């Protein structure tokens, strides 16, 4: 199921399926509609990009690289978005590797991988993985 095109080509579908949005007694209880509007827009944009690249390859053209930068204040959900995309990639793209960098080791360890761990704990497919301080590997 996770390797179906439905999940592989649409990170929003994966994010909506994989986490307990609106479920009573979970940290997402207050979020029945899933990701915030801006996060949803980015996930939808990635799905559109994948669709366009498939069409380009079918026409014999080279695929395009997806580029994104999000500039904002603290606490709006950037690390959550990175977590979802990381978990989507390793969950739905067999054998994939996701490289994550940060300005400092502390930021990478405490902030980014801390957030990935939070989301992995809530994920429906958390049993697939064994997280460490700075990596996630197949169980």
Structure, explained:
48% of the residues lie in helices and 4% in strands. With 139 residues, it is mainly alpha-helical. α4 packs across α5 (105-122). β1 (129-131) and β2 (136-138) form a beta hairpin. The longest helix has 22 residues, at 37-58. The relative contact order is 0.15. Strands 1-2 form a two-stranded antiparallel sheet. It is built from five helices and two strands; from the N terminus they run αααααββ.
Short description:
The protein is 48% helix and 4% strand. With 139 residues, it is mainly alpha-helical.
Q: Into which percent range does the helicity of residues fall?
A: 40-55%
Distance between the termini: 18 Å
Instruction: Indicate the low-confidence ranges by residue numbers.
Output: none
Overall pLDDT level: 89
Assess the beta-strand content as a share of residues.
under 5%
Q: What about the largest sheet?
A: 2 strands, antiparallel
Structural class: mainly alpha
């Amino acid at each position: 199921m996770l390797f179906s095109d439905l999940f592989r080509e649409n990170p929003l579908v994966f994010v909506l399926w994989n986490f307990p949005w609106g479920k009573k007694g979970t940290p997402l209880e207050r979020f029945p509609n899933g990701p915030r509007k801006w996060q949803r827009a980015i996930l939808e944009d990635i799905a559109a990009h994948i669709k366009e690249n498939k069409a380009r390859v079918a026409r014999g053209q080279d695929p395009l690289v997806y580029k994104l930068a999000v500039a904002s204040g603290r606490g709006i959900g950037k690390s959550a978005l990175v977590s979802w995309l990381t978990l989507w990639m390793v969950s739905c793209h067999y054998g994939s590797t996701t490289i994550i960098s940060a300005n400092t080791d502390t930021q990478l360890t405490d902030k980014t991988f801390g957030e990935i761990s939070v989301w992995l704990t809530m994920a429906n497919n958390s049993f697939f993985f064994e997280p460490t301080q700075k990596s996630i590997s197949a169980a």
